[in-house]
Backbone:
């Protein structure tokens, strides 16, 4: 996995949702600061601004029958085209769906290299599949269907927040000390290049509720500490596979 993120321009993240308020956490913490410092740009678009009629409806009954409603293709296409028309770069369209490829750290690094990501947050039974098909045919778009795990959420907004947080922290200038990204779970590599999770961490006091910090961490012996951490990392990773 390449840990280098090289970007030619300021990355832009667009999110389309019928609940724009759900994306409020994007103004907080490190992501909020990165926006304030103009390291990244984020814009949230209300899908209903692209819907027609008095009720600005964005859904309809499913062809073939069945429970629930499906999000109509046209408001999605209008919103996506409008956002894309404002930037000349290639667009990565991310359609959140539990039927997509499972998100992981490798994907986070790939997405952190892109200039423009557009997140389509589905609701109800999801988005008319022709939206995926339509943009797959366009040379200006790369379409990815992504799931954040094998469970079903009510909408794609929380999944978007998860992905954005994992991606944005990899962008140069977002995290104060970029070295901290190298020693993390899923970025650490073992002797055979296998992905490892991080070793356990401890801070002061050295004794707490009858529990001692492992003595090696107080020894000042950097070689021993590195060896202990590597062993713990491997043991923890192995345990996860049990
Ligand atoms: N009927 C769909 C199915 O069974 O695959 C589930 C639709 S779900 C209730 C509504 C929306 O939530 C989806 O369109 C998607 O945007 C989002 N969503 C739900 N679970 C998700 C997951 N695990 N990963 C990413 N997005 C998810």
Residues:
């Amino acid at each position: 996995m390449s840990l280098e993120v090289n970007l030619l321009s300021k990355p832009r993240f667009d999110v389309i949702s019928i609940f724009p308020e759900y994306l409020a956490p994007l103004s907080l913490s490190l992501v909020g600061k990165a926006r304030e410092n103009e390291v990244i740009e984020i814009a949230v678009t209300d899908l209903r601004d692209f819907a027609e009629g008095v009720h600005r409806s964005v859904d309809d009954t499913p062809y073939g029958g069945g429970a629930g409603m499906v999000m109509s293709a046209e408001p999605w296409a209008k919103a996506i085209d409008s956002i894309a028309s404002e930037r000349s770069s290639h667009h990565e369209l991310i359609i959140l769906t539990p039927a997509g490829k499972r998100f992981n750290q490798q994907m986070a690094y790939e997405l952190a290299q892109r200039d423009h990501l557009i997140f389509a947050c589905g609701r109800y039974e999801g988005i008319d599949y022709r939206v995926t098909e339509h943009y797959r045919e366009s040379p200006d778009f790369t379409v990815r269907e992504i799931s954040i795990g094998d469970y079903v959420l009510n909408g794609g907004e929380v999944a978007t927040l998860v992905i954005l947080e994992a991606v944005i922290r990899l962008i140069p200038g977002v995290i104060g000390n970029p070295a901290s990204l190298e020693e993390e779970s899923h970025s650490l590599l073992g002797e055979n290049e296998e992905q490892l999770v991080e070793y356990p961490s401890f801070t002061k006091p050295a004794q707490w509720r009858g529990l001692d910090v492992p003595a090696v961490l107080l020894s000042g012996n950097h070689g021993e500490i590195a060896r202990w951490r590597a062993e713990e990392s491997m043991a923890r990773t192995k345990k996860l596979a049990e």
